[in-house]
Amino acid sequence: MGIQEIIESKKEWRAHMARVKALPQEYQIVYKEIQKYLFRVGPVEMADGITDGTGLFSGIVDLFEEGAALGKGVLEVTGRDVAAFCDDLIQDSKTNADIYQESVNRDVYNAIKKDMDKKGGDRGGKSN
User: Fold this and answer.
1) Cα–Cα distance between 39 and 72 in angstroms, integer?
2) Rounded CA gap, 113 and 117, in Å?
3) Are 51 and 92 in contact (CB under 8 A)?
């Protein structure tokens, strides 16, 4: 990423955050919690840079702006289970949790294979 792209990304992020700050307080609180949640468990693309997730976050702000304009409370928009709301948003994306699960499975497989190779394929006399 070049300097110009970094500058442009920061401008986009600042504009985005200005929209968030214009939301009613309860919406801002929930937005910040959603943001934290998605940065922890969300799509892998977000780990590549702050603004890679701007499309998702902008969509959330669009939804919140619409809800606020209609006079709805934020939990009327997201539902009471905000984490489930987030999970629904990213259900088709590869997440950090997915990568961790894959690495655990790979590590277990490799450890068992290494142990089996060390024993020469012997399973200690046990049969399947």
Assistant:
1) 26
2) 6
3) no
Q: pTM (2 decimals)?
A: 0.70
- Joined tokens for residue 27: 């919406």
Own/partner pairs, 111-119, CB within 8 angstroms, 24+ separation: none
Query: How buried is 87 (Cβ within 10 angstroms: 0-12 exposed, 13-18 middle, 19+ buried)?
Result: middle
Q: What is the tens place of the pLDDT at every residue in 112-126? A: 999 898 887 555 555
Report the DSSP beta bridge partners of residue 43. Answer: 95
Interval 40-76: pLDDT, tens: 887 776 644 444 556 889 999 999 999 999 999 999 9
* Contact criterion met (CB below 8 Å) for 38 and 53: yes
Distance from C-alpha of 43 to C-alpha of 28, rounded to nearest angstrom: 21
